[in-house]
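Dear U.,

Please find below the material for section 3 of the report. The protein was modelled together with zinc ion; I have listed the sequence and SMILES used, followed by the predicted complex structure.
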Amino acid sequence: MLAAILIFALASFPQAFSQEVGEIGGERSIEAESGHELQVHCSRERSRAAWKVIDEYLMPFVEQERYQIPSKCRLHPSNDLFRDQEQHKINYDFNQWQCGYCKKSFRAEKYLDQHFDNRHFDRLNVTDGKCLADLCGALHCDHVMDSRSVKKTRCNLAATAKNRHLCESLADRCFPLNLSPSAARLHELFLRQFCDAVTCSGKKKIFPKGGKKSVSVFYLAISILSLMLLPLFYLIVYLHQRYLLFS
Ligand SMILES: [Zn+2]
């Protein structure tokens, strides 16, 4: 009996006094890890990349068309397992992250991710088919991911054909052709923006219609150009007035 108690105490000791990694704060209370094993087979990193792709390369066009993505579409925010947790990330600085549920601070996003896995796993939307990372083959997630974590592999014909089918079925489901003119336009855009480049030939450009970034770069270039041309315009007007005055 005594031996059993001793073994139990020894086994629980490291857990009871483990502190959360990367946590910021002077007066940190030592808390036991919940010890819950996360039984979710969905990559948070790749899901985040998929969300980034949707947000940058699809949503600007969806908003432009004032289109409501149907909830049965896998690109709808409610179909992202990690959406609620990701929305509860507060980022003050590159090395200061805070948990929106319990206000704990962390030095890096990865520590906050670990904290979510340990403490707030109940906020995961665990239902079948809600893993955004599963759509990466169609959404070109590698394109927006840290290039160091992307392994270059030879193009797999069978996998590419499967991804192509996945991509086209997303277009059909999310933007049904017969729903409305805007849905039909977005259906076409989705095929060009995402599905055309799901090929082994590598000849098609990924996201040929551009996205949030290219739109903002375009406006920035126009703004800078206007600011440069404005003084020139006034100089011409001034010189013209002067010329009129003296002639
Ligand atoms: Zn928390």
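For the text of the report, you could mention the following: The radius of gyration is 26 Å.

Regards,
Y.
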